[in-house]
Design a protein that fits this description.
Helices cover 42% and strands 21% of the residues. The chain is of the alpha/beta class. Among the domains are: 93-166, no CATH class; 243-269. The structure holds adenosine-5'-triphosphate (ATP). Keywords: ATP-binding, Nucleotide-binding, Transport.
Length: 277
């Protein structure tokens, strides 16, 4: 399984947000996408998830051309995602937020469940057990019955990733998963992401938090003004003169990039005020 961008281009009128990007993502890896504000990172994620149309070029998952599909077809082809701004069913319980993902997955057998209640009960118990495994992995098992909207912000972020995973995606797209998280929550997220690396899964993380990216990613793609500026291991990216110039306009080191990212994180986290930790 390989995800391939070939000459991928996105224009918004006269503005070229993604400009001829070609790269590939291998299974078993965590791949970071970084770049200064406005570099095109979210546009890339949204095109891959089928939310935005592609102007030129292609996105392929093995022999399937995703850019020709509708959004739900892209999801069915195995692309799962989270959003920069959390999207949960606030009034449903934490567990129900996961369970609804299984109705998406279970395309067969629904008629059987309706006609034969014992089968429905068995399936419901199985779904619940799997959901509880995901909740345990994300440290949410003791919150299963709480309304999702009442959870502290950091827990909501974890639940969003759990929801994306419950759909068993081949490719998991995470759009700024650490946005609005404090230092300890980010460290926790970093650990959990590392544990999600799996042979049959590609994880792509768009993130400004350099500690997270440099710790957890196997490879990193750096975008600048919509173009692929650099690609390599975390060590290669940190050593790249071009990357430092792109971020800061001058030759500073990765510490300055970290500071710039922290300033941005302080401005994000739309729900932090509502649900303080
Ligand atoms: N829906 C849209 N319509 C028009 N222009 C857009 C739209 N979305 C993004 N853009 C433009 O495309 C460019 C890339 O934006 P994008 O949000 O993808 O960058 P980004 O790297 O994710 O930025 P950030 O780190 O600030 O989230 C920017 O110039 C932005 O103004």
């Amino acid at each position: 399984m390989t995800l391939v961008f070939d000459n991928l281009t996105k224009r918004y009128g006269a503005n070229t947000a993604i400009d001829g990007v070609s790269t590939r993502f291998e299974p078993g890896t965590i791949h970071g996408i970084i770049g200064p504000n406005g570099a095109g990172k979210s546009t890339l994620i949204n095109m891959t998830a089928g939310s935005y149309s592609v102007t030129e070029g292609s996105i392929r998952l093995d022999d399937r051309q995703l850019d020709r599909m509708k959004k739900y077809q892209v999801a069915n082809a195995g692309i799962g995602r989270t959003y920069q701004n959390i999207r949960l069913f606030d009034q449903m319980s934490v567990l129900e937020n996961l369970e609804v993902c299984f109705y998406d997955r279970a395309k067969s057998g629904i008629v059987g469940e309706v006609l034969w209640p014992p089968m429905a009960r068995r399936r419901a118990a199985e779904r619940r057990a799997i959901c509880m495994e995901y909740l345990t992995f994300f440290g949410l098992e003791h919150m299963a019955d709480r309304e999702a909207g009442s959870l502290p912000y950091g827990r909501q972020r974890m639940l969003e990733i759990a929801r994306a995973l419950a759909q068993d995606p081949k490719v998991l797209l995470l759009d700024e998963p650490a946005a609005g998280l404090n230092h300890q929550e980010t460290a926790e997220l970093t650990e959990r992401l590392a544990a999600l690396r799996a042979p049959g899964r590609i994880i792509i993380v768009v993130e400004h938090d350099m500690d997270l990216v440099m710790t957890v990613c196997d490879r990193i793609t750096v975008l600048h003004h919509g173009k692929l500026l650099f690609e390599g291991t975390p060590a290669e990216v940190q050593a790249s003169h071009d990357v430092q110039i792109a971020y800061l306009g001058t030759e500073h080191d990765i510490e300055d990039i970290r500071t710039a990212a922290q300033d941005r994180r302080a401005r994000l986290g739309l729900r932090t005020g509502r649900h303080p930790q």
